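so my prof wants the structure for this chain in the tokens format not the other one, which i didnt know existed until like an hour ago. anyway here's the sequence
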Amino acid sequence: MTAQHSSPVLYMAMELSNSRWKLRFGNGTKVHDKTVKAGDRQGLVAAIARARTKLKVAADGAVRSCYEAGRDGFWLHRFLGRQGVENLVVDPASIEVNRRRRRAKTDRLDAEKLMMMLLRYHLYGETTVWKICRVPEPGAEDERRPGRELDRLTRERTGHLNRIRGLLATQGVHGVRPDRMDPLTVSDWAAQGLAPALAAELMREQQRLHLVNEQIRQLEAEKSRRLAEPQTEADRKAAKLLQVRSVGSVTSWTLAKELFGWRQFRNGGQLGALAGLAGTPYSSGDSSREQGISKAGNPRVRHVCVELAWSWLRFQPQSELSQWFARRFGGGGRRLRRVGIVALARRLLVALWRYVEYDELPAGAVLRKPGAGKAL
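here's what i got, hopefully its the right format
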């Protein structure tokens, strides 16, 4: 394979960390390294201008860059776009690494690796050398915030509840509701009041629990309002999904905001791969086996799809998908049913995508009756 010759281009690989950014520039033959402070936009622009001079790339020459998706999100991609830079945001898990038991790892080596792969991608057309992340529009990215915040708050609430129960258990107290008890009136195993420091700690923990509960209520109310009165395309798709029996508000909201509201798919294979529900076969020599699903992509979508698959079997028993599951996995044991539920989740995700995009209701499925509960 030969390189594609064109006018001089400046290539830039960025290894981002919390305190500094390691930049490696190249023109296909020579390289130039530079380090700038993290978040220093002016320093980055100046480094690009300096690299043009060092590597003899004209001021109007193209600049192509890349960095790994991570803590800095997509703002840097948008900033580079305004500077006329053709940037790629790369999935870190798709970058090949040395398989030795002990390998050297530094920011400089990581930048070198990114530069090598960037050149392979652009100069030699190796489009499969890594996976490129699809960057959402700012509006679509912002629409994902409430759902993700609600997930975090739900986990935080569970943590507060468990912490209060754990503190009470150290004193032999069980069966008390953490959100409604009064630490000053709770008695320990010896029918004595709780120690002052412990009671004060429980009160502070309870205050944090009440705050989290209030924020959850606010987010749930906003979600319910937008499902009842859709404002955006993602809202409308979420409301449409909610019309299908067994699809609850959490599932419809997650699928619409994380996938259907802003992503375009050519086929069901792309959709399954993005959700991490695609298989990963292992075939080498005489060894051939299936390793299970890849678990790549969006974990939120994968989790709600698996939960939805169980709910689908219960509330849509006459659908073709449920009957396929019964024929294929219904007679097996617990392990076979767990394998089957993942396969059902993948098929169900594709079926709901076709319903949202092309109005093709899954065969045999029914819609929810008007006024029926929507909290499943």
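also thought this was worth mentioning. The radius of gyration is 26 Å.
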